[in-house]
Amino acid sequence: MNKTNRQLGQYIFDNQDFEGAPKDFFDETAPLIGFIVHSFNSLDGLLNSTICELINDRTDKPGAIVIYKLPFSAKVDLFYRLVKTMEIGCDSEIACSKKLVDDLKKCGQLRNAVVHAEWDHVDEKGYTFIKMHFDKNGMRQQYWQFTPEALEEIEDFIDQTYILFDKFDDEKSKLLRR
Predict the structure, then answer these.
(1) How is the beta sheet containing 138-145 ordered, strand by strand?
(2) How far is Cα 29 from Cα 108, in angstroms, rounded to an integer?
(3) Which residues of 8-44 are buried (b: 16+ CB within 10 A; e: fewer)?
(4) Which of 48, 125, 136, 167 is the most exposed place for a label (fewest CB within 10 A)?
(5) Distances (CA, A) of 111 to 19, 45, 108, 158, 175
(6) Angstrom distance (rounded) from CA 156 to CA 141
């Protein structure tokens, strides 16, 4: 997925110049955005379930109390700490745990970019305003190019991260059987 930064002009909307027919773009991308939201929610549910199991494998209640109202990024951090604690206790590592945590973080970033994008301000190439940056060069607007292909790649990445939990579970079971 391509990204670009544009210097903030006099007005926030100076850089948002869609010249095509936005309805065609929305007709093509709206279902893909819905699939991303659905896939991410499934991933979030699996993360919840896994955290609950790591906390107590006999009931989800203690884990549910812990994760109640936690944002996704905080749950990923909690998952990481629970796995690391288990690895230290077993004096061994789960080979895929670092990749799983990194991919979960990336899924959260991608989901946030898609869900919080300003979809009513898309240019003719699919560049959509995501967020503002402020650094030594001043205020810049960040745009991501959400083509249908890019949105499909995001959904595929989320799905592959969901599947990675199977590998994690297998490796965790092997670790605990030692």
Answers:
(1) 3-7, 138-145, 127-135
(2) 19
(3) beeeeeebbebeeeeeebeeebeebbebbeebbeebb
(4) 136
(5) 26, 14, 5, 9, 32
(6) 27
Partner residues linked to 139 by β-bridges: 134
**pTM, rounded to two decimals:** 0.89
Cβ neighbors of 83 (< 8 A, separation 6 or more) are 54, 94, 97, 101
- CA pair distance 69, 96, nearest whole angstrom: 27
Per the rule left: phi > 0, alpha: psi between -120 and 50, beta: everything else, 69 is: left
The answer to whether the CB of 29 falls within 8 A of the CB of 149 is no
Predicted confidence (pLDDT) at residue 38 exceeds the cutoff of 60: yes
Quickly count: other Cβ atoms within 10 Å of residue 79's Cβ. Answer: 21
